[in-house]
Design a protein that fits this description.
alpha+beta, Helix Hairpins, two-stranded antiparallel ribbon
Length: 219
């Protein structure tokens, strides 16, 4: 037996009491409570609220409330979740745990915002040094490539002279090697610049979060 919210207000008090005390038997095959005095509340697909001492099988996988003999909610059974929902919940829990651990790190590691800024500046100086070295190396590669290209114009297929010889193998190999190295170092330089931008962003987030945590702990 179960009731809708619209019918509930028309029932005599003794009927509601009987329902809450588990006098009405559940239908065979339905989800029933093993404890006397327990009832349930659930919502159907039309949004209608139902009450009863058992839950119809088609609603056992949905959200439902557990009520005591006085009709007070004493528990809640969550709906069964899909694999995607479970994965999303697990991801959210992991993210919350990671944030909690990082918050603890901020509070226990730094004594002020200046400490965070000091570490940021050290890391930025390291990246700036890497970037300067990469820029210097790329410039040397450009110089080498220009020299190799000047030599290459003396040979076929770049020379306009009819009697020009074929390009030596070592020159061709050096050209290819230098061009490839230019690409590698240019990409590395771009990565260093991106890392510098990311580092600034991460430290700024840490500074803002540290201020929030400091405000919370000081209250």
């Amino acid at each position: 037996m179960h009731l809708t919210a619209s019918r509930l207000k028309f029932l005599p008090v003794f009927v509601l009491a009987a329902l809450a005390c588990g006098i009405v038997r559940a239908a065979p095959g339905s989800h029933t409570s093993s404890q006397k005095g327990i009832a349930y509340r659930w919502v159907d697909e039309q949004g209608v609220v139902h009450y009863g001492d058992h839950i119809p099988p088609q609603y056992t996988s949905q959200d439902r409330a557990v009520l005591n003999a006085q009709g007070v909610e004493v528990g809640h059974l969550d709906a069964q979740k899909s694999a995607e929902q479970q994965a999303a919940d697990a991801h959210a829990r992991a993210a919350a745990m990671k944030q909690k651990q990082h918050d603890a790190f901020l509070i226990t590691t730094y004594t002020s915002v200046k400490d965070i800024e000091a570490l940021r500046d050290v890391r930025l100086d390291q990246l700036k040094g890497q970037r300067a070295a990469s820029e210097q190396y790329v410039e040397s590669l450009r110089t080498r490539l220009a020299s190799l290209q000047t030599r290459a114009f003396l040979f076929q297929p770049y020379s306009t002279r009819a009697d020009a010889r074929s390009m030596p193998d070592d020159l061709a190999e050096n050209l290819v090697r230098t061009v490839n190295e230019m690409h590698v170092q240019t990409n590395a330089l771009a990565s260093t610049t991106a890392a510098e931008t990311l580092l600034r962003s991460e430290f700024q987030s840490d500074i803002e979060r540290y201020r929030e945590l400091h405000t919370i702990h000081s209250q």
